[in-house]
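Researcher: Please predict.
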Amino acid sequence: MVRPEVFSNAEKRSFRREAVALTVAVWVAHYAIFTARDFVVQRPELATVVVLRTGWTLMGAAICAAIYFILGQFRDSRFATQLFIAGLMCFPAAFIQASAVYFSKVATGVPLTIEGSMLMELVRSATSWVWIYFGWAVCLLALQYNLRARREQRLRAEALALAHEAQMRALRYQLNPHFLFNTLNSIAALMLDGNARVAETMLRKLSGFLRQGLAGDSLDDVQLQHEVDHQRLYFDIEQLRFPERLSVEVDIPDELRNALVPSFILQPIVENAVKYAVAPSNERTTIRIVARDVGGMLQLSVTDDGKAGSKGLPGTGIGLVNVQERLASRFGDRYTFDDGPLSPNGYRVEFALPLKKAAA
């Protein structure tokens, strides 16, 4: 289930200030314009109307506050939905305002525009008020849309800065000295043992892994199938190092293969699994990558059944923190992340992000 969009307290305060300023500006302008008109035309009951209009203005501001509160309950809906709801609320608001104006005029003896027909007077008055309320509501939604745009721009700027750092970290993971040393050392050992064919295979896979990793842009999302294929290259190399200790299972439904994920997002997790579950163990360890659609969220999990596990071992935190930082910078509050040991053995890392698929 997608988390509702959450604004910071500073953003909420800013929006409230803008909404208050908009409401005050609309009703003060309305009051000033019509009062000035009555003054210019020297309306006989000017003093009474000025007092009444003050009440109408305060009432209008209060109705706007109620509409603001109701629209706030639909803040996470689409703009068209919010606009439709705002339009619906403008009609009863206009009728309430028109009724207040009508009965206050009748009570104080101020002449009506259409004498003798309450219904016609209410319809005429409500028609005018509905445009005022609708115009205010549109401006309010525009302010909210602008707030969301500014928020997305800020998150994008933060994502840009963190993505460059994440790219450097990703390259460090891909060019991990231990990984390269162990792989090259294994190639050298294979050559000395006369296993040139296996050594050549490992060198070719290492070359393909590095080439594919260096060619990617950390700011670009990639299809899940592409991300998993990249991890398969990594697993292929490690399986040559640990032929009797490492097995890999991938469970991705066909309909999720074109789901978009941040590039290299799985690399730190699977590397941790190999380093801290497979390498220290003398028994076969299975690493499993699973993808699921859970309520509109793409849920990805990487688990291992190694007895060595990952909890408490040095170095595991860096990779997982890197993943969480990238998810936070990319998706704000619209992601989940969880990790921990499994019973009786193994470790699980699971995260979910909004499901979005590549165009066909």
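Model: Residues 18 and 143 are 7 Å apart (CA to CA).
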